[in-house]
Amino acid sequence: MNGEDSLGSFGSPVLGRIRIVLSHPSHPGNIGAVARAMKTMGLERLYLVAPKLFPHAEADARASGATDVLAQAVVCATLEEALSGTVLTAALTARRRDLALPFRWARDAADELVSTAVAGEGADVALVFGNETAGLSNAELSRCHIPVMIPANPAYPSLNLGSAVQIMCYELRLAALSPGEPPSNEVNLATADEIEGFYAHLEEIAITSGYLKPASPKRLMLRLRRLFSRTRLEQEEVNILRGLLSAFRKSPSDDCNR
Amino acid sequence: MNGEDSLGSFGSPVLGRIRIVLSHPSHPGNIGAVARAMKTMGLERLYLVAPKLFPHAEADARASGATDVLAQAVVCATLEEALSGTVLTAALTARRRDLALPFRWARDAADELVSTAVAGEGADVALVFGNETAGLSNAELSRCHIPVMIPANPAYPSLNLGSAVQIMCYELRLAALSPGEPPSNEVNLATADEIEGFYAHLEEIAITSGYLKPASPKRLMLRLRRLFSRTRLEQEEVNILRGLLSAFRKSPSDDCNR
After folding, report:
1. Which of A149, A160, A182 sits opposite B103 (nearest CB)?
2. Taking CA atoms, what residue in A is nearest to B157?
3. ipTM of predicted complex
């Protein structure tokens, strides 16, 4: 189920050691949405405790391209069974409980699950989600080490099950894998002398056009430098701007005055 | 639509200045899921550019308790109209584009939107999401200042529209409002002398029970101290543990030996 090949394709062996456990899910559509949310973030190990309806066409439909996660989901009779072999268990809860362990916010819990999975040398960790309506029972919650909350609008903290799993898997992915620099297109930045050439050209055209008084050019040029300095001009852009300036100079109205 | 009263209930005037714009959404269910995702994170200003079906019963059903966000949604004919008056526009995109501006990851883009909304003194900022299948057109993307990507599994980056909005609104909430300490139950931690009293009691019982050899008690007691030091013992817990120790001493087998 989670051999090296399969894990390799998800980019992180750590993510392959995290079980997402749904306890008593009522709606097969939600199970599908959870599978999709997991796979988008590189998680694949879904455990279902006593699902009301599974497998189900609606689960497959909502899973979209993540039906493989559903196909390899492990259906268990009890939460105990789903947690067998795990060394750390976190459980999402939307409300404070009496006698609960100290709560963690989503981000901190994700960090702790990932660092335990790293330190655990092959042992699994688990993140448990309760039933859509009732949440987790106190007995279920008492089997888990870390109660987790997602920071939410106190007036309406009602996240959909798939959305809660999506946020947690997003945080788990960020905890496991630095995303690095965002993708960028190749750019050739203009050099300082190319940019100075552009400013000289611009000032000359501003003077010959009559917009800029040669006696007090400084403030206008400072403002224009301020504008262009906020971006990083590319060589191609400097060429376009200087081409435009040259075209302005040769404009028909100018020709008439010669 | 976003008067002080309404903003107040969401906990942050900054979140009230962020427009979530859906361009050409195809499925009314997704519009409902977006409204729910927004409201869970305290956002309420939904703009819909040329939605295929809206209003719609399926949108209301998926919105669950967030039908108020749908009721006050602004339907526009064009993206230009939805962005009118905004001072910064970010746009979610799943793929790299030619001639795109530098990309930002979700978290950094959320920080930038929030800090611009704070600095903007009342001006709106916007976050734009494209059609479920086609995404944003290049013309639409060129109207936006920041292309945003959510770090995802490169083998399956296909986030559902509602899920993408959920993650972005979660990041916007965290950028706008520090969640503070996670909720905690009141606990009365045991004092150092109470804990020392427990260790003395434990050592005494360990010796009288014959488990611990009085000649070399140190290593066992060090291990037991190590165990209990990893948690923060509460007064009530020390009382329970000492009660258990006292009960063990008075156990029937012990009585028989007297």
Report:
1. A182
2. A40
3. 0.85
